[in-house]
Each structure stands twice: as structure tokens, then as C-alpha cells.
Amino acid sequence: MHSDSLRSYTDFLRKRLLKPLPGMVAQRAMVPHAGRLNPSIPRHPKEAAILILLFPSEGQIQTVFISRARHDSDVHSGQISFPGGQLESGDADHEACARRETHEEIGVKIPKKHLIGRLSPLYIPVSNFLVTPIMASIPYTPQFIPERKEVQSIVPTPLAHLLDVNTMAVKDMTISSGQKVPNVPFYQVDEHKIWGATAMILSECLYLMREL
Fold first, then answer.
1. Looking at the 3D structure of the chain, how many domains does it have?
2. 51 lies in a domain?
3. What is the pLDDT of residues 107-122, one digit of tens each?
């Protein structure tokens, strides 16, 4: 992959994210069940931000996910997600939160100049979080240092794999409460299944990239 490829994606996305976004039109392809289509958002949900990072590695454009460490108190324990977390009082904005959490969780500092923009916010009813996805790109391969209390493993993934329609599949899932949810769409990445809110956010990201 030439650096021009990453620059082309970055330049396109920086302009595209300033225009109206597809939101649920793109997210609905990965909705795990009908109740997630139009959830009622409470007046004061908890605020969070995640980071979708693009970077060159092994001749390809890649992004990175984390496998969250298992904690009994966390409804998202053990799931695959983007780096990110809850807004804290010291965070100036969602971008600052996403950059801080990315540094804390996977050891990568993202300079402000490498931010691209925001995707559509997504409300997660099970945890009462309103998540704002932030996109960024860096022109080098980062060195990942996982925070072991929060991160079980780091999952770098080629963008081409995610854009391949054969990466998507559907399967019955058992969620953390023990409830079985039929016909859940997901992205298969090695042994990992990316589903739920992360898959919905990723779906909008890939929707926009296909426009390029």
C-alpha cells in the first residue's frame, strides 16, 4: 500500500464527515435485533467516545479493535470494540476523550492534527451510553501497548478484509445476560466476531468508504 492510498481515504473522509451522514441507514445492516432500530434516548445518557484509527501496516491500510478484558460488572466484558470509553471531567470534548482512552488502552498517542472527524452518535440501551465515534489516521504503524486490566488482546485488521462482503455473516448469539438473540449480523475477523454497537458503528464507516 502506498502512502497515497491512506492519504486519499483521509482526505475524502475529512471532507465527507462535514456533510450529512447516513446514520441508521448504514447502521441498520448490523442491528442485532429490531428493538435497536429506533431506541428511546433518555434526556441525560452517559457520554462516551471511541476512536477508529487508520494506519499503514504490512502494505495495507488497517484499523484496530480491542478484545475487552472480562469483568463481571461490565455488560460489554469480553466483546470486541474500538478503543474508547466514558467522558471524564477533564476531557475538553469527545475527541479528547477518544484520544485519551486510546492512549490508556492501547498505548498510542494521537496528535490533534491527525483527527479526521465524527461519525453519527449511537445510543446503547443496555449500558445507557451515547457513543460518539471519532476517526483519525496516522502515517505510520503504531506500537501497541495494551492496558491489561482493560484489554485482553489487540486486534489489528486490514481495511480490505472489512470491506469484503464475505466478512459479514449471521448467527444466533448469547448475550451477557444469558439471553439468546437469533440472527445477529456480525463481521468475522480471525476468531473474533464483531457485532452489536461496534458493528453498527463500523457499518457506517465502511458505508462511507465505499463511496470513495
1. 1
2. yes
3. 999 999 999 999 999 9
